[in-house]
Amino acid sequence: MTEAYVKSEISGKTQVIEFFHPSSNSLPGAILSDIANAITEAGKNDNARCILLKSRGDRAFCAGASFDELVAIKDAEGGLEFFTGFAKVINAIRTCPKLVIGRVQGKAVGGGVGIASAVDYCFATQHSAIKLSELAIGIGPFVVGPAVERKMGKSAFTELAIDASEWRSAEWAAQRGLYNYVGADIAKMDAELSQFISRVEKYSPEAIGELKTIFWLGTEHWNDLLVDRAKISGRLVLSDFTINAINKFKSK
Q: What is the pLDDT of residue 250?
């Protein structure tokens, strides 16, 4: 299969949401919208006790923003619309009354790091290195920044945001709270993930809902904050610096 998709299906008492894009699971606007909608709908499904968010494949979890869509943005309104897609995904996870569990089987870049930061509990493999590459192309991790900072702390977020060209290992990310489990390979990760989900499925939905409120206390303003951040990215993506930088990356 080579066409991008987002699919959501129930497995036992877990709603499994899987996304795919042939360009290393990058995130065009349509995929972002579908992920956000799938999470919102899963939150309303009384048959689901938790949500598993994953991508297809065995190498890249998520390459972040789609370069094709970035270079196609022609005005600030289009930029705002695109980057608001990341805000919608983060806010969908934040406001979902169910635990959202992440499965990061490979490298995560930019928005992929934002998704890994936003989920409530995250499993990864030793190959799940991370990078916030936005500054290298003239923008910055403005929309995902609050989620990354909340999960990893200001120091780790600052390091990732400034050193935008270098990877940080899965172990580095786990030490700073991004990953809750790091397995040697996908098989080991999935074995632990399966056992974890079987436990979560037995928890009280009401108790989980109350915990989610506590976990995200103090983020009630994010509906507005992340849109304001999207405006910054939407403006910067129109600069000659960013256009030239993206074209250089695409030509490699």
A: 74
